[in-house]
Amino acid sequence: MMTADETVAFLRKRPDIRLIGIDGLPVSGKSTLAESLIDALGAKVIYFDDFILPKKDWPEPTEPGFPFLYVRYEEFFHAVEALATSGTCSYRLYDWASGTLGGTRTVEAAGGLVIVEGVSALSPRISALYDLRIWVESDAKTTLAAALARGVGPGSGNGESFSCPALSAISKRNRKNARILSLPGAAPRASHALAI
C-alpha cells in the first residue's frame, strides 16, 4: 500500500515517467490525487472536466448514463493523443460559470510531467499512451456521500451522474487497463491502483 506521499517519492525516483493517466468513478478522489502530484512535482494537467459541451447543447433531460452525453470525447482523446505523440496539445476550456466554451489552453510537455485526469483517462483508445496508469478506487457509500456533499448525483439536476450500470462496466474495463496495485488514496475516502 502506498500513500499519496509515497507515490510522489516513487515518481521522483522515476524520471522516465512523463505522462500519467488518473481514472476512477466520478467524485472518487481523482482530482485530489492529481492536485497532490501537481503540488509536489510541478506537473501540468489536462482535466477531463475541461471537455464539457456548452450547456445549451446538453440533451434534455440529462439522464445518468455513460458515455456522458455532455462531453466532447473526440476533443479529449485528440488532445491526449496529440500530447503523447507531439508533446503539445491545444483545446477549448469549458467555462463552468457561464456554461459555454471559454478560452483555449495549450499544454506542452517540454520534458516535464503531465497528468491526464478524469473518468475516461484510461479508456482503451488512449490507455497505452501513458507511462503510468492510476485507478482511484472508491466504495459506493463514500462516493455517494461525497457526491451529495458536492451537490451532484441523484436529484441534483446539474447533469453530473456518478453511478449507472454502463458506467460501472466501463469503469471495470478502465480499471483493468491500470494493471492494478493497491494504494490508499490522497483522499481519505479513496484508494488508488497504480500500474506502469
TrEMBL record:
Top-level taxon in the UniProt lineage: Bacteria
InterPro entries registered for this protein in UniProt: P-loop_NTPase (IPR027417)
SUPFAM superfamilies: P-loop containing nucleoside triphosphate hydrolases (SSF52540)
Protein name per UniProt: Phosphoribulokinase/uridine kinase domain-containing protein
Organism: Devosia riboflavina
